[in-house]
Amino acid sequence: MLTPKENLLETLKPDGRPDRLVNQYEPFALVMNDPVRMYTSGDRVKGKTIKDRWGTTIMWPEDQFAAMPHVTADDKVLPDITQWRKYVKVPDLVANAKDWGPAIATRDAIDRSEKLVMSFMGTGIFEESHFLMGFEDALVNFLAEPEAMHELLDAICEYRRTYARLLIENFKPDVILSHDDWGTKTNLFMSPDTWREFLKPLYAKLYADFHAGGVIVLHHADSYLMPIVEDLVEIGVDIWQGVLPQNDIPEVQRRTGGKLTLMGGIDAAIVDRADATEEEIRAETRRACEAYAPGGHFIPCM
Fold first, then answer.
1. Where are the alpha helices (DSSP H) in the chain?
2. 56 CB contacts (<8 Å, ≥6 apart)?
3. Is there a contact between 157 and 125 (Cβ–Cβ < 8 Å)?
4. Is 139 helix (H, G, I), strand (E, B) or coil?
5. To which H or E segment does residue 213 belong?
6. Nearest CA to 44 among 63, 68, 76, 74?
7. Is it the case that residue 279 has pLDDT exceeding 90?
8. Is 218 in contact with 241 (CB distance < 8 Å)?
9. 220, 242 Cβ separation under 8 angstroms
10. I need a surface site. Which of 50, 118, 242, 249 has the fewest CB within 10 A?
């Protein structure tokens, strides 16, 4: 029987031979105490409202699973994209992320013959743009102020590349979970051409850095991404985490030909409810496994 790590690696190979379906995040040992994440997100605490390192208001109500940006006309960091250099102060990760000892101690306690060490990079390039100016302004500015939007996104991308470089050089993870949601349950937030113009080249550079450092790219986007699934392969995504069943998953498997592993398929609207029954959860999980496992390169997951 393959170890969880071995089974995941076989699942990723175009001609791999996994001996079972990967059990969600079982192959991954997520380490969250690296100094970059602690500097950028360590002060997010349930029940508190804070300003993050970029100046965005972050709220975490007691009854919610996670923190979220709260951007209003009165407190948005970036009121005018054409003057983004005046308003946006990119956090200095190099100067503020120095003590790698705790994270390395956590990493060294992991059995790397069984597990893949995984780091987390939240708030992706698109997400950071709407954290700064609000969702409506971000989407409008792709069309109304493309030159300034390109400049801002380039700056955010370089910040993310610095983040990745620090992780790879100092911590040496096997996998980085990179977060950027690009759509709703039924559509992209923008046209495929807009995504390709503004975001695709940046992610191609970022994920080339991951691969150059020997890191598996696990990109989270619990979104409808059917129009750009071939692009995900081209930018270097190894695992698309958050594949909603609203996507045509067998068609994605056919179009990507074993070059993209899909992690998702279980409908959260059915199973992630306080009143969900065991029978409902088992039935939806079985449906996903039976529907998508035959296409290969599939990890059933929320």
1. 4-12, 35-41, 84-87, 93-96, 101-108, 125-133, 135-144, 146-170, 192-198, 200-212, 229-235, 249-256, 268-271, 278-292
2. 69, 71, 77, 131, 132
3. yes
4. helix
5. none
6. 68
7. yes
8. yes
9. yes
10. 50
